């Protein structure tokens, strides 16, 4: 197990290196002065000059790459002049809000999506199945930020039940802070939940249908378990394996969704930061955000792998 | 023995796509003037003159959406086309030659799959500028790994088949065998995946526009949504209709792609027989 | 003495794209407590379908369209879903054909056995585990392996585990559906010996479904030979196999080198079984029967009792020696 973990951790480096190389390539291919790209458009002239000197931008490409890598390894992702703060500090702070949003919405999405899919499979080709199947496709075809705006239109503008943006109110009306955050989170979390729900429902339906044909399901029926137990306890557990795999594979799609949702709801996470950085042409933040998101996906993948080995005893660590 | 009911998804998908293509082709005839010129009263709710309403500067939403169909279809076919070519070629080479080539390319597919695509695209477009063709190319170039993986798997199973072996024995060069015998027989699943990639490309265009990263001189569905953001309460038609347009086009790709996938899946065929 | 199991006039139809397929057509047989019955026949003759129907486990497109299955006088066909669920595994359990896939791959074998028992009987997990240990020893597996996953077992061990699972609730009837086909020859022997031992020890009522006549000959008191969804012939195993009263039984026995030493000729039956969507209207075996007479293609043969406890579905069952000798038949039945 330990050796397996060690090897998995070693596999992280090539991907990170790829993302770093892409960043470096962009800096050097960009039209105009690479130093401006590295500093962002708001950076003062002196800073750009200093940057040019410290990176030796007149030096050969390989030497510059070396300097860049060394800086990154010290956690130096540059400085954001739009926020007047180091990029890494900014990213770490904003990542918390994103994690909160993603974890909560995905918890419900995986739970309910899998349940819906299993329910559809259990009633294969009947009305419930058709409704769930077409409903999920329809939901899947709606852009996430559009769903977000529709939610705002209904629940914030028309009904005025929920706040449409931000994470906290200026005036908390004596509410504890966590309740305030929870109320602000309902709409964005619902939006992200609706976005990924169809993925899990579709997947669970397909894999439960496949597992339902297996012999051990017939065994479970023969033993006399009820249909509900047969599907929910025997088929679902086995059908969860592909769900876990896909959850891992779709982590980057999930971050993409989070980016758009945070933009719609002004949720102060990584995605909103990226949006603000686009408007401000704050390149260090954009590049740092890209690296950071890559790293998050890799770590997420790693966690998913560990969960998988727990769910499927057949997996051997080799 | 296929009944019409079984074909409903495919027919519906093709009909939706045909409608979209027709709108794209007819846009210049329907709305000859530049859709971005303001020549109507601002903030008009939908009525007979402006069936989808007008925006805050007096532009006809219907005209912008009609012209926007062209942008969305360009993204769909352009980006998915680039991805199809790159993915097929690289995947086929990887699967056919194996060895070190395969190792290196497979690793590359994996790594590209992990990198969060939209973050990368945003970065590139922000640095280089939001030129239409550049954006199409970038979206296409970030999508190819899944096609490559499918093609690689196809080639691995197909290269040992009789006709491929016969071609090899008859002295054909490796690239002839690969691209005139193996690839044409294995392209099906890649095409099915391409339909889904088209949907993804349309979504990405809309997302980029929504983030303010599309060419402001071109009317696109995402662009209208971007402008409409500030008017959710006062001009909901600026939001509702572009979203429906996107959902409709995506639906057509999913219905067609889903049917393709089902037909190509050997297990599903077994169940039908 | 009353019968533990009584099957009467059972008919099972499958809905297919080509139309209704009569997989089982008018089957009747009985099983006494402690008795063992072999169901033999070629694949597709309906023997496995019959077994599944006894537990009402037919696949979605299969339906029991006529007949009764009485277990201890209770009709399975008419019972509610809940009643059937209570009968399963308690009164009648099954050992499936493919032990490799019959166990849930992601649950420990011991857990699967415990779950089966606690589903039916009000016992604690500890008690259930004790029982699982005892049964594991009975089937020749070490109780220490109860907490293993199925993939950690060899093929023969898995088949033993599947048998152990079937015995968990001490069922009154055990169905064994081709329990040895997926195994190598050595493991086949061991599993057969295990079943024979269990039968002797517990007085198990056993129905063995097999295309392996030698296995049936070894294990079963009685045998029912099935052909094209019907029972061709039924009777005490030794008598029936040594002295068949149906041309199909004769052909089937002859195609095996030697069951008992007496039969040594080797011949096999020409042709293929009929299409069950459009079965022959009269005798189903007539098209392949080497001794077929004109009547065989015109009148469906009735099931006749040729001796106490022996039945055959052949027009010439009572004059079988004459028929196969190829002599003139004195009084042709009409």
From TrEMBL, chain A:
The chain crosses the membrane at residues 12-30, 97-119, 131-157, 177-197, 240-267, 287-311. InterPro entries: BPD_transp_1_N (IPR045621), MetI-like (IPR000515), MetI-like_sf (IPR035906). Keywords: Cell membrane, Membrane, Transmembrane, Transmembrane helix, Transport. It holds the Pfam family BPD_transp_1_N. GO terms for cellular component: plasma membrane. SUPFAM superfamilies: MetI-like. Its main location: membrane. The keyword Cell membrane applies. It is found in: Cell membrane. Residues 95-308 form the ABC transmembrane type-1 domain. The keyword Lyase does not apply. GO terms for biological process: transmembrane transport. It is a multi-pass membrane protein. Belongs to the binding-protein-dependent transport system permease family. This is ABC transporter permease. The lineage of its organism: Bacteria, Pseudomonadati, Pseudomonadota, Alphaproteobacteria, Hyphomicrobiales.
UniProtKB/TrEMBL annotation, chain B:
Keywords: Cell membrane, Membrane, Peptide transport, Protein transport, Transmembrane, Transmembrane helix, Transport. The chain crosses the membrane at residues 12-31, 73-97, 118-143, 163-183, 234-257. Pfam families: BPD_transp_1. The keyword Transport applies. Residues 69-257 form the ABC transmembrane type-1 domain. One of its GO terms (biological process) is transmembrane transport. The keyword Membrane applies. It is a multi-pass membrane protein. One of its GO terms (cellular component) is plasma membrane. It is found in: Cell membrane. Belongs to the binding-protein-dependent transport system permease family. This is ABC transporter permease. It comes from Microvirga alba.
TrEMBL record, chain C:
Residues 7-253 form the ABC transporter domain. It is a peripheral membrane protein. It is found in: Cell inner membrane. GO terms for molecular function: ATP binding; ATP hydrolysis activity. The keyword Zinc does not apply. Its main location: membrane. Signal peptide: none annotated. The keyword Nucleotide-binding applies. SUPFAM superfamilies: P-loop containing nucleoside triphosphate hydrolases. GO terms for biological process: peptide transport; transmembrane transport. Gene3D superfamilies: P-loop containing nucleotide triphosphate hydrolases. CDD domains: ABC_NikE_OppD_transporters. Keywords: ATP-binding, Cell inner membrane, Cell membrane, Membrane, Nucleotide-binding, Translocase, Transport. GO terms for cellular component: plasma membrane. Belongs to the ABC transporter superfamily. NCBIfam families: oligo_HPY. This is ABC transporter ATP-binding protein. It comes from Microvirga alba.
């Amino acid at each position: 197990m330990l050796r397996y973990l060690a090897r998995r951790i070693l596999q992280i480096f090539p991907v990170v290196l790829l993302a770093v190389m892409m960043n470096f390539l962009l800096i050097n291919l960009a039209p105009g002065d690479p130093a401006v790209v590295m500093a962002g458009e708001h950076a003062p002239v002196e800073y750009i000059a200093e940057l040019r000197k410290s990176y030796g931008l007149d030096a050969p490409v390989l030497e510059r790459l070396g300097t860049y890598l060394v800086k990154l390894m010290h956690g130096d992702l540059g400085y954001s002049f739009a926020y007047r703060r180091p990029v890494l500090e900014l990213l770490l702070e904003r990542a918390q809000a994103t994690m909160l949003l993603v974890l909560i919405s995905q918890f419900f999405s995986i739970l309910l999506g899998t349940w819906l899919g299993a329910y559809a499979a259990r009633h294969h080709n009947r009305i419930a199945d058709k409704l769930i199947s077409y409903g999920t496709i329809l939901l899947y075809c709606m852009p996430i930020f559009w769903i977000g705006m529709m939610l705002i239109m209904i629940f914030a503008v028309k009904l005025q039940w929920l706040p449409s943006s931000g994470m906290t109110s200026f005036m908390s009306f004596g509410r504890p802070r966590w309740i305030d955050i929870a109320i602000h989170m309902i709409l964005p979390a619902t939006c992200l939940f609706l976005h990924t729900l169809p993925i899990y429902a579709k997947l669970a339906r397909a894999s439960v249908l496949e597992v339902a044909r297996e012999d051990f399901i017939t065994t479970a029926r023969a033993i006399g378990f009820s249909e509900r137990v047969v599907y929910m306890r025997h088929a679902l557990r086995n059908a969860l394996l592909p769900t876990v795999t896909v959850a891992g594979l779709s982590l980057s799609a999930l971050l993409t969704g989070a980016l758009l949702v945070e933009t719609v709801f002004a949720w102060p996470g990584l995605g909103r930061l990226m949006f603000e950085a686009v408007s401000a042409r704050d390149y260090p933040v954009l590049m740092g955000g890209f690296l950071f998101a890559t790293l998050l996906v890799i770590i997420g993948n790693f966690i998913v792998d560990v969960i998988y080995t727990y769910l499927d005893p057949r997996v051997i660590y080799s | 023995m296929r009944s019409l009911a079984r074909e409903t998804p495919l027919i519906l998908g093709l009909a939706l796509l045909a409608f979209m293509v027709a709108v794209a082709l007819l846009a210049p005839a329907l709305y000859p003037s530049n859709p971005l010129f303001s020549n109507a009263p601002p903030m008009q709710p939908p009525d007979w003159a402006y069936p989808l309403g007008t925006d805050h500067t007096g532009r006809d939403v219907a005209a912008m959406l009609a012209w926007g169909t062209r942008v969305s279809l360009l993204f769909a076919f352009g980006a998915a086309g680039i991805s199809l070519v790159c993915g097929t070629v690289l995947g086929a080479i990887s699967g056919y030659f194996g060895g070190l080539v395969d190792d290196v390319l497979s690793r590359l597919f994996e790594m590209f799959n992990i990198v969060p695509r939209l973050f990368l695209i945003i970065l590139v477009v922000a640095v280089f500028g939001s030129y239409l063709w550049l954006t199409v190319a970038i979206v296409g170039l970030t999508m190819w790994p899944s096609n490559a993986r499918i093609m690689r798997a196809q080639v691995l199973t197909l290269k040992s088949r009789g006709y491929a072996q016969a071609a090899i024995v008859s002295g054909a060069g490796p690239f002839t065998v690969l691209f005139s015998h193996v690839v044409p027989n294995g392209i099906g699943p890649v095409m099915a995946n391409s339909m889904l990639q088209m949907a993804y490309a349309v979504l990405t265009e809309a997302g980029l526009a929504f983030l303010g990263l599309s060419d402001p001189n071109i009317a696109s569905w995402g662009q209208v949504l971007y402008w409409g953001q500030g008017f959710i309460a006062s001009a909901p038609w600026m939001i509702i209709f572009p979203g429906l347009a996107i959902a409709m086009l995506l639906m057509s790709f999913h219905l067609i792609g889903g049917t393709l996938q089902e037909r190509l899946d050997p297990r599903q065929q077994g169940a039908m027989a | 003495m009353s019968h533990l199991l009584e099957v009467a006039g059972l008919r099972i139809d499958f809905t297919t794209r080509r139309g209704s397929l009569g997989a089982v057509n008018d089957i009747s047989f009985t099983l006494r407590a402690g008795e063992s019955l072999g169901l033999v026949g070629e694949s597709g003759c309906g023997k496995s379908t019959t077994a599944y129907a006894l537990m009402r486990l037919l696949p979605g497109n299969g339906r029991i369209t006529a007949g009764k299955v009485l277990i201890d006088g209770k009709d399975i066909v008419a019972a509610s879903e809940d009643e059937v669920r209570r009968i399963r595994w308690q009164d009648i359990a099954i050992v499936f054909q493919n032990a490799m896939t019959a166990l849930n791959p992601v649950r420990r074998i011991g857990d699967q056995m415990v779950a089966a028992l606690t589903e039916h009987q009000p016992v604690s997990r500890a008690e259930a585990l004790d029982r699982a240990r005892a049964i594991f020893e009975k089937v020749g597996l070490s109780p220490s392996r109860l907490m293993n996953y199925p993939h950690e077992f060899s093929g023969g061990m898995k088949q033993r585990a599947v048998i152990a699972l079937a015995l968990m609730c001490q069922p009154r009837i055990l169905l064994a559906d081709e329990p040895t086909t997926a195994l190598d020859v050595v493991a086949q022997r061991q599993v057969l010996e295990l079943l024979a031992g269990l039968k002797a020890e517990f007085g198990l009522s056993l129905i063995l479904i097999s295309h392996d006549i030698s296995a049936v000959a070894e294990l079963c008191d009685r045998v029912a030979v099935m052909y094209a969804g019907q029972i061709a012939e039924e009777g005490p195993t030794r008598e029936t196999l040594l002295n068949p009263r149906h041309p199909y039984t004769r052909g089937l026995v002859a195609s095996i080198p030697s069951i008992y030493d007496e039969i040594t000729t080797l011949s096999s039956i020409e042709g293929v079984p009929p299409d069950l969507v459009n079965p022959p209207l009269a005798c189903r075996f007539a098209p392949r029967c080497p001794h077929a007479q004109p009547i065989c293609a015109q009148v469906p043969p009735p099931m006749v009792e040729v001796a106490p406890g022996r039945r055959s579905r052949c027009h010439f069952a009572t004059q079988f020696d004459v028929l196969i000798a190829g002599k003139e038949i004195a009084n042709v039945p009409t």
